[in-house]
């Protein structure tokens, strides 16, 4: 059994990595996209997650992990929507900007490049390793 990898997006003005670290954990709620919901449902406790700042900055800034698997999203009464809890693990040595990701041939198939709007997305093992290399973590 191996852990899956994911990427979640947040606008720093709405919820930044710094705020996340300060809180120590968060409920990842408010997702209203069917594909993203499917990914939330597939997240397992212990899975690693890239934290991506979108709109301002557009870069992967840190690594989080799933600490509670999907449950009813507390921001809506509609039980079809789910949330997960995640906690920060570490800030990347260097954040990895989207334009660098787009230039890297190893990452051309990454969901971040292909379906940029998706707020929760899977990351393959090879993509995970490549991003860590770009971040100076390997």
Name its key features.
6-stranded mixed sheet; 138 residues; alpha+beta; single chain; 26% helix; 5 helices
Helix content: 25-40%
- What would you report as the Rg, rounded to the nearest angstrom? 14 Å
Shape: globular
**Into which percentage range does the β-strand content fall?**
35-45%
Extended strand count: 6
Main beta-sheet annotation: 6 strands, mixed
For the termini, the CA-CA separation is: 23 Å
SSE ordering: EHEHEEEHHEH
- The chain-level mean pLDDT equals 95
Query: Low-confidence parts lasting 5 or more residues at pLDDT below 50?
Result: none
Give the strand line-up of the largest sheet.
2-5-4-3-1-6
Q: What structural class do the secondary elements suggest?
A: alpha+beta
Q: How many alpha or pi helices?
A: 5
Overall description:
- This protein has helices at 17-23, 34-42, 98-103, 111-114, 125-134; strands at 5-10, 26-28, 48-53, 59-72, 82-97, 120-123.
- A six-stranded mixed β-sheet has the order 2-5-4-3-1-6.
- With 138 residues, it is an alpha+beta fold.
- A hairpin with a 5-residue loop joins strand 3 (48-53) and strand 4.
Summarize the structure.
The protein has 138 residues and is of the alpha+beta class.
Topology:
Elements: E1 5-10, H1 17-23, E2 26-28, H2 34-42, E3 48-53, E4 59-72, E5 82-97, H3 98-103, H4 111-114, E6 120-123, H5 125-134
Parallel strand pairs: 1-3
Antiparallel strand pairs: 1-6, 2-5, 3-4, 4-5
């Amino acid at each position: 059994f191996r852990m899956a990898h994911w990427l979640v997006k947040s606008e720093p003005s709405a919820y930044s990595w710094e705020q996340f670290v300060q809180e120590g954990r968060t409920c990842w709620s408010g997702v209203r996209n069917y594909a993203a919901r499917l990914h939330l449902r597939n997240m397992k406790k212990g899975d690693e997650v890239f934290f991506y700042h979108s709109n301002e900055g557009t870069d992967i800034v840190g690594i989080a992990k799933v600490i509670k698997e999907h449950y009813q999203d507390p921001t809506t009464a509609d039980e079809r929507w789910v949330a997960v809890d995640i906690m920060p693990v570490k800030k990347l040595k260097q954040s990895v900007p989207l334009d660098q990701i787009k230039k890297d041939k190893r990452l051309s198939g990454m969901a971040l490049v292909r379906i940029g709007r998706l707020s929760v997305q899977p990351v393959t093992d090879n993509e995970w390793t490549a991003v860590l290399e770009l971040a100076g973590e390997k």
